[in-house]
Each structure stands twice: as C-alpha cells, then as structure tokens.
Amino acid sequence: MAPKKEGKLKASAPPRAAQQIPNWPAFTPLIPESDLSLQEALPGQIVTIPNFFTATLCKNYVSFLSGLPLTTTPGKPKKGDAVRVNDRYQIDDPAFAERLWSGTSLKNLVTGVVAGEGLNLSDHQRKELWGGEVIGLNPNIRIYRYSKGQFFDQHYDDSNNVFVPGSPPIPGRTTWTLLLYLTSPATGCVGGETVFYPDPPKKKSREPQPEPFVVGLETGLALLHKHGADCMLHEGREVLQGEKWVIRSDLCVKR
After folding, report:
1. Strand ranges in 101-168 using DSSP code E only, listed in sequence order
2. Are the beta carbons of 223 and 229 closer than 8 angstroms?
3. CB of 220 closer than 8 Å to CB of 181
4. What's the pTM value of the predicted model, to 2 decimals?
5. What is the Cα–Cα distance from 138 to 115, expressed in whole angstroms?
6. What pLDDT is attached to residue 9?
7. Which one, of 92, 130, 147, 134, lies nearest residue 225 by Cα?
8. Which residue numbers delimit the Fe2OG dioxygenase domain (predicted)?
9. Tens of pLDDT along 42-63?
10. Which domains does the chain have, with CATH numbers?
11. Per-residue pLDDT tens for 235-246?
12. Exposure of 147 by Cβ count < 10 A (0-12 exposed, 13-18 middle, 19+ buried)?
C-alpha cells in the first residue's frame, strides 16, 4: 500500500481579510519555566513537554475553541491523502504563532536557554536534532476536535516552506510537528492515542517487527515529532468516548 500523506499545506501567507482572527485567550496560568523540561520519548523522533499547558488553561481553551466555526473533514480524502474524520479550524495567524513560541516556555526549551533536566545538547547537536536553526512556529494554526468515532488514519506529515513572523518575515521550513493536547482520560476522553510505527526490518533481516510506539493523551502535553523525509508512519486512534482537542503548528528552521 502506498504511503498516505496528511495533505499538503500551502506556504503561509498573510491572513485573508474575509477570515477574522480569533481573540485567543491569554496563556495563563502557566507552570514556571524552571519546572518544565524536554523529554526525549523516542531518540531523534519524538520529544514531549509534560504540563506545557496547565489543566485550567486547557479547560479555558476548550471552552473558547468550541465557539469557533469548525468544519467537518470529508470522509473521502483526495487521492494519496490519509482518511481523516474530525472537525477542524485553520487560520494563518503570525501573532498567535509568535505568542505560542515566545510567550510560553517553548522557545527557551527548544533553543536550550532553560538549564536543568531534559535534553542537554550542544549547539551542533541541537541543530542536528531540529534540522537546522530554529526560528519559530508555523503561522498556520490548526485546531482539531475528534468526537466519538472520529480518527486520523495512518499517514506521514509533509514538510512545508513558510514565512515565520519577523520584520521582515523570515523564510522558514517546517521540520517537526507540534501537537498540544487539551483533553485526556482525566477530562473524559477515551481513545485517541497517537501511535507511531517504526520502519520494519529489511526483508532479509531476522530482527523482529518493532512494536508500535504509543503516546497516550495527557492534558496539557506538548508533543513534537519529526516530519518530512524522516517522518514516522503514525495515526490518531479512534476516539471511543468524549472529545479530543488539539492545537497544531510546526517547528520551523531557517532556510
């Protein structure tokens, strides 16, 4: 079976006049930066930040996002795209992307400003991990809601050329997907885990088939996973109960 793609996004452009920028809630309360750290869940592929958003902030955002004009994704995808059944909202908002990057602990954690537990990398190792010099987040912000019975079939995430907020905007390229989970079993969401499938061993190899790597939902967890040419096949499992809410952007490096 041919690999499925998420669906190619166009390079970010200034917001269209017809689409009103949401009045996003403030990022408060947040856990102090010194109490957070990057956790390498799968070396070179998956990095997490537990408690990136507090439970209170997640609840505030779910309440706010519920009022946005979400659109149900068609059940029949374009040729070559994976089956995705969810409700989504998408907007180009450079200001929100910059606030999510610089107005939280994300920038300092990713660029290594924060000392302490987590990834202790040299500048060279950090560039190698992220795929270059990280300059911010993709201004294309996506909101996903998965209700009971909805899912995202196995697929790969593409890399995209974008312009990151700056004066003037900086040409960038996305290298890692950012998923921020706002709900979990603690909020009544059952199912919806993100599952990664390591490449199988070569045909003549006697190595066993590697087990899938499952990332369960945790309220406020930020998940970063490598995409583009080195993206692992992955899926969002079916939600069995409640709602799964996700904020999606991408880590960008200078191009």
Report:
1. 134-137, 140-146, 151-155, 161-164
2. no
3. yes
4. 0.90
5. 25
6. 35
7. 130
8. 136-255
9. 999 999 999 999 999 999 999 9
10. 41-73+82-113+122-201+209-254 (2.60.120.620)
11. 999 999 999 999
12. middle
